TrEMBL record:
EC number: 2.3.1.-
SUPFAM superfamilies assigned: Acyl-CoA N-acyltransferases (Nat)
Keywords tagged on the record: Acyltransferase, Transferase
Pfam families: Acetyltransf_7
Source species, domain of life: Bacteria
Protein name, UniProt field: GNAT family N-acetyltransferase
Biological classification of the source: Bacteria, Pseudomonadati, Pseudomonadota, Betaproteobacteria, Burkholderiales
Molecular-function annotations in GO: acyltransferase activity
PROSITE patterns named in the record: GNAT
Source species: Cupriavidus basilensis
Domain N-acetyltransferase per the UniProt entry, residue ranges: 5-147
Length: 147
C-alpha cells in the first residue's frame, strides 16, 4: 500500500496529464477535457499517477477511466480512487453504479459490482458516449447497488 499519495478532484490544468495517462493505459481520452471536473486524480511527488471519474445519469453513476501508471500499480491507488468515487456517489441521489471493463471484472467485484447484460443498464447510461465506446470494444457491463 502506497501511503504518500494525495487524492484530489481534478481541474482544467490537469487535463493534459490525465489524457496522457489514459492513453498510456490503453484507455480512450475522448471527452476528458469536457469531463475533467468529474475526475479524481492521485498524485505522487506532485505528479498525476492515477485517475478515475464518474458520470451521473439519472439515478445512476457510471464509473469510468480508472487508470494507474504501470510503475505505480499494485500499491492500492486504484482502490483508493474507486472507494472515493463510490463514497461520493452514495452521497448523491444515485442508487446504482455501473461500469464497463474489458480486463478487470474480478477486481471491481470487491465493491459489489456484478456482471449484467449491457442492455439491462438504464437507457440514460447506455446513451453516454463512454458506454457507447466501451460496448464497441467488447467491455463487460457491471452493476452495483449504492444504497
Amino acid at each position: 500500500m502506497l501511503t504518500d499519495v494525495l487524492l484530489r478532484l481534478a481541474s482544467h490544468p490537469d487535463w493534459r496529464q490525465v489524457a496522457a495517462l489514459l492513453e498510456l493505459c490503453g484507455l480512450s481520452s475522448a471527452g476528458t477535457a469536457e469531463a475533467i471536473e468529474n475526475f479524481h486524480v492521485a498524485l505522487c511527488d506532485g505528479r498525476i499517477v492515477g485517475c478515475a471519474a464518474t458520470e451521473h445519469h439519472g439515478q445512476s453513476v457510471l464509473v469510468r477511466s480508472v487508470a494507474v501508471e504501470p510503475a505505480y500499480r499494485d500499491r492500492g491507488i486504484a482502490s483508493r480512487l474507486v472507494e472515493v468515487l463510490l463514497m461520493r456517489a452514495r452521497g448523491t441521489q444515485a442508487r446504482h453504479g455501473f461500469l464497463l471493463s474489458a480486463s478487470a471484472p474480478a477486481y471491481f467485484a470487491r465493491w459489489g459490482f456484478s456482471l449484467i447484460p449491457a442492455d439491462k443498464a438504464p437507457a440514460e447510461v447506455r446513451a453516454s458516449s463512454e458506454f457507447q465506446h466501451a460496448v464497441r470494444t467488447s467491455a463487460l457491463c457491471m452493476r452495483c447497488e449504492l444504497r
